[in-house]
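Researcher: I'm preparing a figure for a lab meeting and need a structural model of a single chain. I don't have an experimental structure, so a prediction will have to do for now. The sequence is pasted below. Please return the structure as tokens so I can convert it later.
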Amino acid sequence: MAIESIGFMHWTNSDGVPTVKFVAVDTSAPAGKAARQKAGPGRPAGARKPAVGRSSARSTVVLKIIMAVSGIVLVGFLFAHMAGNLKIFVGQESFDHYAHWLREIGEPALPPVWALWIMRVGLLVSVIAHIVSAAVLTVRARKARPVRYAHRPKVQGSYAARTMRWGGVIVFLFIIWHLLDMTTGTVHPEFDPAKPYANVISAFAPERWYVTAFYVLAILAIGFHLRHGIFSAVRTLGQQSARGERIAKTIALVLSVILVAGFLSVPFAVLTGLVS
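Model: Understood. Here is the structure written out token by token.
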């Protein structure tokens, strides 16, 4: 609080000697019309801000948590899927047995394929939650700055962070293609649901080089997306120390390299004749 002493001169004694008295005045708080203008129209001075901003901030945190948790679920699926794909190096019988076992999980408690469809629905929910939360957060970030910068400074960051959104779009399109190619066989001319091993071999045949090229592009996008996503998820879930962030970055890089190498080993093995 700012206090100023203001002096007032007036005659008080019989000798005509002026005396001065000082009065302390608070000059930090505006008064009258100025106070009402500062508080804003229709809002008294000193009133609290509406809870809309706080509610929006809380919902943003919730969306970030949803995106982090759904991302972790999808990462778990990717590593399980990669481990299953690597069975192709063990041999046709082992790979086909694994593929058919997936359809029999939960028997006899569940009818055939039910467990597989439960997992598929769970993955679909995770994908939708991940995409929707990311989209809402992107829109909110843009609304927070409705006027574009005349000259936007270059943002320092990894290539994975700068391509996060485009990588997500590429991965989403690949998921659709991959399901049509290896699950339903809609775009796979030689697809046979009874022969999973043969389906993989024919899917990456040299004459279908464009499928392999798209597969490689999508897996690389997943790697970049995963590298930045794991680090962001760890931060969202509470890790803020400098040492913890360094560890998170290292783990994210290692897991991304393992995932990319594991997935790409299958098409390259088919193209080179190591698996046939």
